[in-house]
Amino acid sequence: MGQVAFSSCELDARHAVDRRHPRCRNRTGDGGGIMTDWDRVERLIGAGNLALLASKRVGVIGVGSGGGFVALTLAMSGVGQFVLVDDDTLEPTNLVRHVADARYLGKPKAEAVADLIHQRNPAAQVETRIGRIEAQMDALDGLDLVVVGVDGENSKYRINEACLARGLTAVYAGVYERGEGGDVTIIHPHDPTSPCYSCSSAVVREGVAEDDAQSDLDYGMIGEDGTLEAEPGLWLHVVRVASVQADMALNDLLRDTPIYRSYPGNTVILANSALEILSGQITPPYGALWITVERDPDCMVCGWRGQGQGTQDTAISLDDLIAAGFAVDDEKQGEGSE
């Protein structure tokens, strides 16, 4: 298993956000002068960075309670192009945990979120893919970054495999049982020291607080067939994790610019309530712990990536893991974006 280093620190709450509209409407500002829709954003991050974000193409896989929030937040923060993938429709039970409201009941979540993006920025380019990501991995082609908003671990493993093959940066998030906390991980396949999602999840879900008998770090409940069943939490708890996921994604899109911020790790674990993240150490409500998960040289998915060989030639696929009994095929299960 890969190594992990811990760093306790305050979570950076700053959001490098918002964007420019190509056809800005003029309006009267607070001081009586004329300002455009995106002037305040431009003052925060600069015109050049607004233009950069407008050119970025981001995939959001799973636009449920978390992914839908991330997609809309990125659109309001300057990202100009999206591919939204989801196989679910908006149901009445979703209304207390989703950015879409009753106007969209019965409609695909991807289309609902696309409409909300266009309401904020009519110039945004949004492609919707209705269905499971496993059946349309070409949706990942030509992206600058992927936001993973699905609940199912096997879906995440398949996305991980596809992103490694494409050298595509991905930001994963998970919310713990009853919304008690969550974690966000960014994976950089082009960095030979970076773990893949398989490495990272093994450490975060099993290696942290190894003697935690009450399963505080479970991502909800595991069904009898081994697939994840999402454990609902209040939307405000989901959104706290999703806000960090959106911020980390936005920050990575601004890599190599003066406003890019380095982080003390590649994974942040968030506590919404008092949570034992490290064995014997209680993180208070609203606390956060940064950790650095290293690539596991024995990882069955990316273990040979650091030896100068191509991922496609050496990686073991999820199908191989299923055949070996290390994973369960949840092809017939929904992605669970909620």
Summarize, please:
The protein is an alpha/beta fold. The chain contains 9 helices and 15 strands. About 16% of the residues have low confidence.
Write the layout of secondary structure elements.
Elements: E1 4-8, E2 26-28, E3 34-36, H1 39-45, H2 47-54, E4 57-61, H3 67-76, E5 81-86, H4 109-120, E6 125-130, E7 145-148, H5 153-166, E8 170-175, E9 181-187, H6 197-207, E10 221-222, E11 228-229, H7 235-253, E12 267-271, E13 275-278, E14 281-283, E15 288-293, H8 311-314, H9 318-323
Parallel strand pairs: 4-5, 4-7, 5-6, 7-8
Antiparallel strand pairs: 1-15, 2-3, 8-9, 9-12, 10-11, 12-15, 13-14
Helix pairs in contact: 1-2, 3-4, 3-7
Tags for this entry?
338 residues, alpha/beta, 20% strand, 15 strands, 9-stranded mixed beta sheet, two-stranded antiparallel ribbon, Rossmann fold
According to DSSP, the number of beta strands is 15
Gap from first CA to last CA: 31 Å
Q: What is the number of helical segments per DSSP (H or I, 4+ residues)? A: 9
Radius of gyration: 20 Å
Structural class: alpha/beta
Instruction: Indicate the mean pLDDT.
Output: 81
Per the CATH scheme, the topology name is Rossmann fold
Supply the CATH superfamily name: NAD(P)-binding Rossmann-like Domain
Spatial strand arrangement across the major sheet: 1-15-12-9-8-7-4-5-6
User: How much helical structure, as a percent, in the residues?
Assistant: 25-40%
What count of domains describes the coordinates?
1
Q: Tell me the strand percentage band.
A: 15-25%
What is the approximate shape? globular
